[in-house]
Design goal:
This is Helix-turn-helix domain containing protein. It comes from Streptomyces mordarskii. This protein has 10 helices and 7 strands. By secondary structure, it is of the alpha+beta class. β4 and β5 form a beta hairpin. The longest helix is centred in the first third of the chain and has 12 residues. The protein is elongated, with a radius of gyration of 23 Å.
Length: 259
């Protein structure tokens, strides 16, 4: 990894905030903004905003830890991610719910509650998606969503993407994925997305979530392959042709409201 060349004037470094100053040290050490974002578990566009919009104050401790590790000779990306992660505090909304942070393929949300006089975090929802390649290899990132929902007595819905002609019902029919505008998305490449058990409520919305324990049993029966379990359900319930290739799958899980 070759250290970057310094530009004349240093880009007015004296006026940069602490996050930008620390990021500069990582850039000078040969990392790029994408790699810095990966170390922090954030999008590289946010790293650019350290310089342009004065952001990144909450990530300064993580950046300091990463810089110190690099100065000590650590160069492995996974090691730096683990070091930085210990210094990143999740952002909470005013309600006590952890702000959603979109990762590479999923979202997870929690809320802070009081139990036995202690403030603890409780899972509230998760989402993960998988494309053609990940589905072909077993869609492993989808399984934790199912398992977490089952452990917390939650509900599950999913959206599947496949060739338009593979679906046995016309889009929008109540017998399949109801609501053309609401739960069916047609793509220019000849594929179509349809949502099942979507928790939207109201007339014609269909089933409001599969029971997560039952859904997990279906996944376990498929050897832990979530995509295979979904395909089996679609075929058994006369939704798609048996030889259909699923090219996209999103699993959503949530806990029911406690009134």
């Amino acid at each position: 990894m070759t250290p970057r060349r310094r530009r004349a004037g240093g880009g007015r470094r004296a006026q940069r905030n602490e996050a930008a100053r620390l990021t500069d040290q990582l850039l000078d050490a040969g990392f790029n903004k994408k790699q810095v974002g990966e170390i922090l578990g954030r999008n590289p566009s946010l790293v650019s905003q350290f310089f342009t919009k004065n952001k990144g104050a909450s990530l300064v401790p993580a950046l300091q830890a990463a810089v110190q590790a690099v100065q000590a000779g650590v160069r492995d990306a996974e090691s730096l991610q683990a070091i930085a992660a210990g210094h990143i505090q999740p952002r909470l909304a005013k309600t006590g719910t952890m702000a959603r942070v979109r990762g590479r393929g999923g979202i997870r949300a929690e809320k802070t509650v009081t139990e036995d006089g202690r403030r603890v975090k409780r899972w509230t929802s998760s989402m993960a998606r998988a494309g053609r390649q990940h589905i072909a290899s077993g869609a492993s990132r989808l399984r934790p969503v199912v398992e977490e929902a089952a452990a917390n007595g939650g509900k599950i819905a999913f959206t599947v993407r496949a060739r338009k002609g593979s679906f046995k019902h016309d889009s929008g029919r109540l017998a399949d994925s109801p609501g053309v505008r609401r739960n069916v998305v047609q793509r220019r490449d000849g594929t179509e997305e349809r949502a099942y058990a979507n928790n939207v409520g109201g007339p014609g919305s269909g089933m409001e979530g599969f029971d997560a324990v039952d859904f997990k049993a279906m996944v376990d029966a498929a050897g832990g392959d979530v995509a295979a379990a979904v395909q089996t359900w679609l075929v058994d319930n006369n939704r798609i042709e048996p030889d259909t290739v699923i090219v996209g799958l999103e699993i959503r899980a949530w806990t029911t409201r406690e009134d």
